[in-house]
Amino acid sequence: MKRESLNVKKVLIGETEITKIIDRMVYEMIEQFSQLENVAVIGIRTRGVVLAERLVRRIEEKENVKLMTGAVDIALYRDDFCKGLTSPKMGPSEINFNPEDYHIILVDDVMFTGRTVRAAIEAVMDYGRPKSIKFVALVDRGHRELPIHPDIVGKVIETGIDDKVAVFFKETDGEDKVVLG
Fold it and tell me: What CATH number is associated with residue 125?
């Protein structure tokens, strides 16, 4: 989705609420994954990486731990890769540890059909078979096509199948917000 050409219909979540949602997600992650020394957090490019970095930073501050982190690019793992995508933007996958030693938490900004998460799981598995994989998303907008659901979700937002939901982060976009387009 091209953010420059997105016709914003409505701001769904503003900066203050995003901060509160992320704080709550951090506490849920700490509670669910109590053995944090065996946990690695991997963000799905692009904005899943930004969200993962924020979550990790807050968890490390609160729990006085150092988490393994990484990033995964799913462009080549998409099930629609051969269906005429115009040269997808790709970034490097950065998993500089053996996933077999960790419980992996995959992080993305928006959960939609489940196809992105499926692709991310495949990408991680190419590096090794983790002890487990959990999924965390800032927004769950429904319309699942695969039986994949987030283990922790910031906010469920009902959308139409043709709606666009875009997350903006200060680090990449200059402001924090979630919009409907």
Answer: 3.40.50.2020
Phi, psi values for residue 171, rounded to 5°? -60, -35
3-state secondary structure of 78: coil
Peptide bond into 46 cis (omega under 30): yes
The mean predicted confidence, pLDDT, of the chain is: 92
β-sheet bridge partners, residue 10:
180
103-111 sheet: strands from edge to edge: 68-72, 39-44, 103-111, 132-140, 152-156
Structural tokens at position 172: 């990449």
Task: Provide Rg for the chain, Cα atoms.
Answer: 16
Q: Is residue 39 part of a domain?
A: yes
Q: What's residue 34's pLDDT?
A: 78
- Structure token digits, residue 82: 């051969």
The total domain count for the chain is: 1
pLDDT, tens digit (0-9, with 9 covering 90-100), for 7-32: 999 999 999 999 999 999 999 999 99
Give residue 98's domain range.
10-180
pLDDT digits (tens, 9 = 90+) for 81-130: 555 555 555 678 999 999 999 999 999 999 999 999 999 999 999 999 99
Q: Does residue 138 lie in a domain region? A: yes
CA–CA separation, 38 and 87 (whole Å):
37
